[in-house]
Write a structure and sequence with these properties.
Blueprint lengths: L3 E7 L2 E5 L4 E3 L4 E2 L3 E5 L5 E8 L6 E4 L2 E3 L2 H17 L4 E8 L9 H16 L6 H11 L11 E4 L10 E5 L6 E7 L9 H7 L6 H6 L1 H14 L2 H20 L10 H15 L5 E3 L6 E6 L3 H9 L6 E6 L5 E5 L1
Parallel strand pairs: 7-9
Antiparallel strand pairs: 1-6, 1-16, 2-5, 3-4, 5-10, 6-9, 7-8, 10-11, 12-14, 12-15, 13-14
The chain binds ligand DP6.
Length: 327
């Protein structure tokens, strides 16, 4: 038998309203909904090849053989796909990113979105977008948002069946750019999965979650109306709320570096002087500066001149995860 192979590509996404904390850690059912935009130009490309000659799954990440917890997490997702397809073949998974991993550019989102699409297609499954988004969610929560295109909302849902992401506006709807000020490129000490499990230990988490519906409405409306000022206010508020929860959990999680804080002070000041931009930070020190495309050149140049900023990546709004090849 020849190998069953498919290659898929997915973009990472940057959350405007953050996912932080699960009500079910295994199924990755979030405590609150979230909204993000996909990042064009940054991507993970994953080739999955199921082969009866293999006696275990193999993971090759950016050219390196990987074992341990990363392989187990990939195998668990492949088990889901094998279960759905009724096949018992092991697979070789080759995945590569064109952006730094583990530094707040949510590499797991693009990785599990691409893996879900490639693995399901390799075994002949033609899943609908919602089913693919649910599958990707099992690998990494934020990955469910890298399946649909453009501006995306992950609905909390009642359970596994209805917790998936949908596009609220296509990529062409609003020409925004994420200028990522890269401050560190190493792996973060505490990954998101462990962080989610600590969220409930913060006395601030209940208040953050209670108010999430209001922030989701403000953010969705700002996107639909292309109202940058309204978007900027709610995006910065939501990032600060998530980091307040992180910093007050037990043990506390501090992801910021001094250069991150300097940018968090400078960006609102530059905005009040007329340069449209706002900041958001994930579980890492990098600062994502969101701005309209017309301002991106000036924003990127200004960021690159700040101390501690190693480089500035620019990404416009990206499309959905897509299949590149099936054989
Ligand atoms: C801070 O999706 O990376 O980026 O489900 O454990 O893989 P796992 O967590 P992950 O968490 C993302 C957290 C965040 C905010 C966000 O992207 O919404």
């Amino acid at each position: 038998m020849t190998a069953l192979t498919a290659t898929a590509l997915a973009h990472p996404n940057i959350a405007f309203i953050k996912y932080w904390g699960n009500r079910d850690q295994v199924l990755r059912l979030p405590v609150n909904g979230s909204i993000s935009m996909n990042l064009e130009g940054l991507f993970t490309r994953t080739r999955v090849s199921f082969d009866e000659d293999l006696d275990a799954d193999i993971l090759i990440l950016n050219g390196q053989d990987v074992v341990g917890s990363a392989l187990s997490r990939v195998s668990a997702l492949l088990d889901q796909v094998r279960g759905m397809a009724g096949k018992k073949l092991f697979a070789q998974v080759e995945s590569s990113n064109n952006f730094p991993m583990g530094a707040g550019i949510a590499s797991s989102a693009a990785a599990f979105a691409a893996l879900s699409l490639a693995a399901s297609r390799a075994l002949g499954l033609e899943l609908h977008e919602a089913e693919l988004s649910r599958l990707a969610r099992l690998g990494s929560g934020s990955a469910c948002r890298s399946i649909p295109g453009g501006f995306v909302e992950w609905q909390t849902g009642q359970g596994d069946a209805d917790s998936f992401a949908v596009s609220i506006a296509p990529a062409e709807h609003w020409k925004l750019v994420d200028c990522v000020a890269v401050i560190e490129t190493g792996h973060k000490p505490v990954g998101s999965t462990q962080g989610h499990a600590l969220a409930d230990s913060s006395p601030l988490q209940a208040a953050r979650v209670a108010n999430a519906g209001r922030r989701l409405n403000r953010c969705r409306n700002a996107i639909l109306k292309r109202d940058f000022r309204a978007l900027a206010e709610v995006v910065e508020l939501d990032s600060n709320l998530m980091h307040a929860v992180m910093m007050t959990s037990t043990p506390p999680l501090f992801y910021w570096e001094p250069a991150s804080v300097q940018l968090m002070k400078a960006i609102p000041a530059w905005r009040s002087e007329g340069l449209p931009m706002c900041y958001t930070l994930d579980a890492g020190a990098n600062v994502h500066a969101i701005c309209p495309a017309e301002a991106a050149g000036q924003v990127a140049e200004q960021l690159s001149r700040q101390p501690g900023v190693q480089q500035v990546l620019q990404a416009t709004v990206g499309g959905p995860a897509r299949v590149e090849d099936i054989s």
